[in-house]
Recover the amino acids of this structure.
């Protein structure tokens, strides 16, 4: 019984720590996932999944430092798997996302051309650009989050930006 | 006039503000504790079976099935061996790069990299690229389709019937190893559930090879795999402060192997070098002191036939600069680079002897290629016309002082890169593979970026 009681205390502590982390980081992470996926519901689900995953792993982690970085990598993994699953969908489904409709409504006639162009980039370039220009992470941190070398981050970012510039130019014509 | 960066930054912020704190549901963590107790988390978040056990995940699956990201045609390489121009409409190559090269003779050179396919919206369709030079021309060699494999990062071997190529994919984060037995490339079976990406390979014999890179997952680390003639198995990496990456490996014998990379402190995001040595029985970390470098990162290592060892990389502080280091026999020593260009970085190195070393990379944001030569006393920048263009050199290989190969990509501002292979014949650099410019290859070229649009002018004669 003693063991069970200790366990219950541990679980309560973990739940409290996770709730605090959620209050601090959930907004930023959901925004990150939303920019990656373009869909609010999917972004919220990926973020919830990341927090639940951390809660389950909590007692086995050697350290509870840098949980923000841990959650960010979880969220990016979750986004990648949503993108992978969607790519395997049997039939092409054209969906005008509620989010982009809402965005247009909020902005009046002004379209977010760069964000629209970003959605047409390969996932890797999109991820590098969102981490750089939205999350404002340094190259080393992006490399860690993406699981590639810092050199690759630089070239991926450079090429993503170049492709974006080209798309924006073409749109102007 | 706003730059693209400024526009993107502003739009991302505006778009992100569609998500507000008030809209988020605080999760109830304790609901996970019962009825089914939490199970140990195995492997990747993306991996598999445990999902269904949790009731709250059902809506995720439903959301994913709706496929908000527009999904269209499947990637052709998923369904068969990939070789030659990807023939269906979804598979036309639009860009790519060569990451590494291995040269055995003037008539036997291998280059590996990846091609980006003309992709459906939102997808990341890259396929591995393997090219072989037979002394006359480059020919694309088919590789088996593997869903985890979208890029090959390195190639090495003892001869043209014992070659290893390593790489991985972006989404899958699974290391992939291919072997060439003289006739075909085959995917090697790795122990299950290894997440990560392989960035370098070194081979000393048919029964001894090393592949290094980084593990995937949420706690990144160095990944070291060893081939003993029968299987690839994981070897633990020596501990270091922070998250470790390995990017290069070089061997002079089975008892003298160096692997290089960097270790990033997760809290400060500052990096230090991570250099480790294998003495035949264990890996140990070797310190590199007196670097005078901010955020140093090593990208590659090479060993010459005389045992000379060099490593190349960059310092990644406020100003990027080349980082060139040699092993003196007792310590790693930084040697001043032959470039004063702020922003220059080296990603590749090839050693012929203690007095003949080549290093290469790219200038700031890959605005131009960088090629450097070491004559035993100093590094000199080679500003040859055939070797200087917008883009970057990723890999180098040398069989003799007048037979050097440099691989990478050409990419001007506003265009995705295209694969390039250059050759040094002892007096000049010339282009051996890939289009001469990035304009016109995206749409007009019928054979994509991997055709020779003009005969190589100065390649080794058979």
């Amino acid at each position: 019984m003693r063991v069970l009681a200790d366990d219950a205390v541990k679980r309560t502590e973990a739940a409290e720590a996770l709730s605090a982390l959620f209050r601090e980081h959930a907004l930023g992470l959901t925004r990150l996932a939303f920019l990656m996926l373009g869909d609010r519901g999917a972004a919220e689900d990926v973020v919830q999944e990341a927090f639940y995953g951390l809660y389950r792993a909590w007692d086995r982690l050697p350290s509870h430092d840098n949980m923000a970085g841990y959650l960010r990598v979880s969220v990016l993994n979750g986004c990648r798997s949503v993108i992978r699953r969607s790519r395997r969908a049997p039939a092409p489904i054209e969906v005008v996302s509620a989010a982009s409709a809402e965005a247009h409504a909020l902005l009046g006639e002004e379209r977010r051309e760069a964000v629209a162009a970003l959605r047409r980039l390969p996932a890797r370039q999109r991820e590098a650009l969102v981490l750089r220009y939205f999350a404002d992470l340094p190259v080393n941190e992006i490399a860690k989050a993406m699981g590639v070398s810092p050199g690759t981050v630089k070239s991926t970012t450079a090429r993503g930006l170049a492709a974006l510039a080209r798309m924006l130019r073409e749109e102007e014509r | 006039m706003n730059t693209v960066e400024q526009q993107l930054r502003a739009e991302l912020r505006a778009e992100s503000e569609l998500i507000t704190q008030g809209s988020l549901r605080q999760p109830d963590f304790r609901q996970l504790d019962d009825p089914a107790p939490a199970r140990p988390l195995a492997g990747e978040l993306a991996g598999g079976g445990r999902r269904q056990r949790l009731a709250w995940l059902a809506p995720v699956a439903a959301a994913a099935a709706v496929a908000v990201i527009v999904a269209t045609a499947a990637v052709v390489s998923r369904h068969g061996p990939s070789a030659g121009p990807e023939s269906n409409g979804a598979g036309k190559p639009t860009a790519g790069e060569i990451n590494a090269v291995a040269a055995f003779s003037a008539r036997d050179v291998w280059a590996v990299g990846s091609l980006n396919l003309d992709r459906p919206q939102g997808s990341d369709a890259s396929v591995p690229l393997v090219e072989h030079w037979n002394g006359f021309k480059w020919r694309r060699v088919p590789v088996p389709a593997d869903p985890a494999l979208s890029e090959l990062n390195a190639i090495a071997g003892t001869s043209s019937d014992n070659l290893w190529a390593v790489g991985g994919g972006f989404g899958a984060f699974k290391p992939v190893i291919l072997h060439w037995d003289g006739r075909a490339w085959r995917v090697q079976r790795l122990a299950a559930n290894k997440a990560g990406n392989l960035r370098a390979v070194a081979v000393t014999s048919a029964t001894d090879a090393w592949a290094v890179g980084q593990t995937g997952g949420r706690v990144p680390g160095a990944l070291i795999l060893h081939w003993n003639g029968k299987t690839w198995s994981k070897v633990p990496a020596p501990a270091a402060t922070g998250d470790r990456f390995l990017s290069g490996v070089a061997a002079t014998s089975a008892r003298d192997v160096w692997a290089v990379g960097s270790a990033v402190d997760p809290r400060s995001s500052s990096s230090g070098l991570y250099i480790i040595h294998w003495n035949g029985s264990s890996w140990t970390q070797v310190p590199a002191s007196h670097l005078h470098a901010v955020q140093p990162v090593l990208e590659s290592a090479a060993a010459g036939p005389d045992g000379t060892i060099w490593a190349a990389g960059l310092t990644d502080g406020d100003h990027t600069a080349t980082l060139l280091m040699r092993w003196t026999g007792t310590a790693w020593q930084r040697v001043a680079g032959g470039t004063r260009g702020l922003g220059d970085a080296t990603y590749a190195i090839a050693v012929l002897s203690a007095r003949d070393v080549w290093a290469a990379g790219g200038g700031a944001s890959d605005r131009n290629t960088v090629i450097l030569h070491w004559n035993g006393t100093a590094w000199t920048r080679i500003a040859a016309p055939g070797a200087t263009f917008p883009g970057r050199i990723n890999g180098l290989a040398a069989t003799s002082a007048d037979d050097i190969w440099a691989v990478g990509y050409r990419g001007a501002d506003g265009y995705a890169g295209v694969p390039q292979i250059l050759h040094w014949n002892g007096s000049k650099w010339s282009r051996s593979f890939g289009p001469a410019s990035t304009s016109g290859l995206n749409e007009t070229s019928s054979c994509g970026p991997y055709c020779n649009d003009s005969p190589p002018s100065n390649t080794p004669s058979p």
